[in-house]
Amino acid sequence: MAAGPDALGIPDDVTAHSFQGAVATILDDAGLSARGTADVLGHVDPAMTQRHYMARGRVHTAAAEALDRAVSSGD
Fold it and tell me: Whole-angstrom Cα distance, residue 38 to residue 49?
């Protein structure tokens, strides 16, 4: 028999959906692809995983550095 949320010490406000979102965020932060994240979450369509679980609007330091180099190279 599986242990319930109380036995695991999971707070009442943590739902299966919010846990799934947390897992998706951890995998996204780790750099996993949408396909890999979709596989872990049990999604058939990685595009749906990207739309609903993978963040947009994050800071991308490598992209900023590449653009800075491109703009600054003319000096």
Answer: 6
DSSP string computed for 18-75:
HHHHHHHHHHHHTT--HHHHHHHHT-S-HHHHHHHHS--S---HHHHHHHHHHHHTT-
What is the reported pTM?
A: 0.62
Per residue in 12-54, pLDDT (tens digit) is 888 888 888 888 888 988 888 999 999 999 999 999 999 888 8
CA dihedral 45, 29, 52, 16 (to 10 degrees): 90
Burial tier of 29 (Cβ tally within 10 Å: 0-12, 13-18, 19+): exposed
Contact 25, 31 (CB under 8 A): no
